[in-house]
Amino acid sequence: MATDKYIKNYINGALLPPDSGAYFDNYNPATGKVYSQIPDSDAKDVQLAVEAAERAFPAWSKTDVNTRFRILARIADIIEQNLEEFAKAETIDSGKPIKTSTTIDIPRAHQNIRFFATAVLHFASESHHMPGEAINYTLRQPIGVVGCISPWNLPLYLFTWKIAPALATGNCVIAKPSEMTPMTAFLLAKACMEAGLPDGVLNIIHGYGPKAGQAIVAHPKIKAISFTGGTETGKKIIQTAGPMFKKMSLELGGKNPNIIFADCDFDEMMIGTLRSSFTNNGQICLCGSRIYVERSIYDKFKTEFVKRTRFLKVGDPFSTVTDMGALVSKAHMEKVMSYLALAEVEGGTILCGGKPVKVKGEYEEGYYLSPAVIEGLPIGCRTNQEEIFGPVVTITPFDKEEEAIAMANGTQFGLSATVWTKDITRANRISEQLHAGIVWINCWLLRDLRTPFGGVKASGVGREGGLEALRFFTETKNVCVKY
Q: How far apart are CA 17 and CA 30, in angstroms?
């Protein structure tokens, strides 16, 4: 399943150039070079996709769930069978290490599809008996044409996370991947064609967010929006879709705390904290970017954590010894570095990292940055309040449990949190008090696809995952039958 230089939209079962004929450059962040062309789609392309989806919806929404299951399972099989090609495309597009694409991103993508294909077979409705009078039963029916917009950090992983439950429940989808990482979405379109997905059921539009993405959000025939991305973009989506009374699921930014108590398993915690800090260059909304350590072990933690951070290998994403590849773009690298400069202005000390890394050979113009650890910053400073989304963490000591909770909750965000302690009573007590949609105890990024996922405060609206996703992509109708 080869990649093409010119990516195409997937509309009504066919691969099509943008209506305008305009393309823009797609960069390989590891080399800093253009390697393909992306459709500069606009409202006309979205309109064609919506028309195709509307034609397909009556038949697809009434298609037997076993048939939907078989088609979606076939798509998952094709992705799994072509794992190496998908992983290579993901790494070239995003700059992440090939071992990450091979072991995390692409496996999770086909697992997403297979999970929701299976889940819909068990998706049941409720009934409520009114003795001697009536029976109420609940219908959960597909919404119609829905929009799914995903980010660049986990391209196919999060793209399928949205598309799969929408299709499984009988909706037709207009989907847009990030313009910075479009290639695996293009390969997904080819997999759908090979699997025999009916024309118009899934339509994939490539292009810029303010143009193609906004056209999806604003289209009156698209009845629901599932979006993952930045909080500021989420606000704009609400401003457009809210007055149109569209259903919305918005998974937005995070500035996640990692609370470490002295009684933790130190070695296990250190491995987990290194992962939660720098996996995918810190470009995961769930990364723990604010680390709070009980004072009695703070110096020990700092010494060991800085040593292990310096040991991380930054470089060629196709090397088996690479821990961290390139950041996704030059502009994003400049943004991350601007926060490092800000941290010093705010009184922080950069203990290690934060410098561009020069990689020899074909990668010498890539966007590489050494992972940074900063200490000495107050909770209210911008570095501790704003989402950097890069390989940058701050470390801060605390004395009391209440202090750690207050600092953890001290931002506008509330996506996830991590707690390291052997005291399970304390772990449960703290979990109740943390403002977060998910709390990990003595682990990080351990995910069960059946569980609800999402944030509170500025980290989002609604929940994804498991039955929550199937419920989101259906309308609930109560039918009351009197007897």
A: 27
Domains of the chain are: 9-252+457-482 (3.40.605.10), 257-441 (3.40.309.10)
Q: With CA atoms as reference, report the closest residue to 445 among 279, 310, 261.
A: 279
Per-residue pLDDT of 160-216, as tens digits, reads: 999 999 999 999 999 999 999 999 999 999 999 999 999 999 999 999 999 999 999
DSSP letter at 104 equals I
Give me the count of residues in the chain. Answer: 483
CA distance 309 to 290: 15
| Owner of token pair 């409520």 | 128
Which residue of the set 251, 294, 375, 387 is catalytic?
A: 251
Closest to 164 measured CA to CA, from 49, 67, 71 = 71
At 126, give phi and psi (nearest 5°).
-100, 160
Nearest C-alpha neighbor of 42 from the set 218, 193, 171: 218
Considering 285, 287, 387, 468, which one is annotated as catalytic? 285
How large is the C-alpha radius of gyration of the chain? 23
In single-letter form, the type of residue at position 426 comes to R
Separation CA 190–CA 186 (nearest Å): 7
Record the tokens describing residue 234, joined without a space.
Answer: 């989420």
pLDDT at 4: 84
The answer to whether residue 285 is catalytic is yes
Report the SS3 class of residue 423.
coil
Token readout for 282 is 């810190």
Instruction: Please name which of 229, 170, 180 lies closest in space to residue 202, comparing C-alpha atoms.
Output: 170
Are 126 and 139 a contacting pair, CB within 8 Å?
no
Beta strand extents in 303-371 (DSSP E only): 349-352
pTM of this prediction?
Answer: 0.96
The C-alpha torsion from 193 through 197 and 203 to 206, rounded to 10°, is -30
CA nearest to 302, candidates 248, 349, 345, 360: 349
Task: Determine what percent of the chain is predicted with pLDDT higher than 70.
Answer: 100
Q: CB neighbours (10 Å) of residue 186?
A: 24
Q: Is pLDDT of 3 > 80?
A: no
Q: Cα-flanking dihedrals φ and ψ of residue 2, to 5°?
A: -80, 150
Q: Report pLDDT digits (tens) over 229-283.
A: 999 999 999 999 999 999 999 999 999 999 999 999 999 999 999 999 999 999 9
